[in-house]
Amino acid sequence: MFEQRVNSDVLTVSTVNSQDQVTQKPLRDSVKQALKNYFAQLNGQDVNDLYELVLAEVEQPLLDMVMQYTRGNQTVLL
Asked: Where is the signal peptide (predicted)?
C-alpha cells in the first residue's frame, strides 16, 4: 500500500504578537483554535455537518492557492 508522509512543519501560519515578534504555528493549531471557538459559540446546540463545514472552509482556499501557484494549469500534479 502507498504510504504518504506529511510534513506539517511546512504548513504554518505566521502571527505577530504585541511585542512585534513573529511566531510560526502549524496550520493544525489554527484549525484547532477555530474549532474551539466554534464549539464555544454553540451554547449547547447540536453540531450539524461539522466535517462538511470544515472541508468547505479549507477546500476553497486550497484550490484557489493551487490554481494561483500553477498559474491556472490544472494538469500540474501537486
From this structure: none
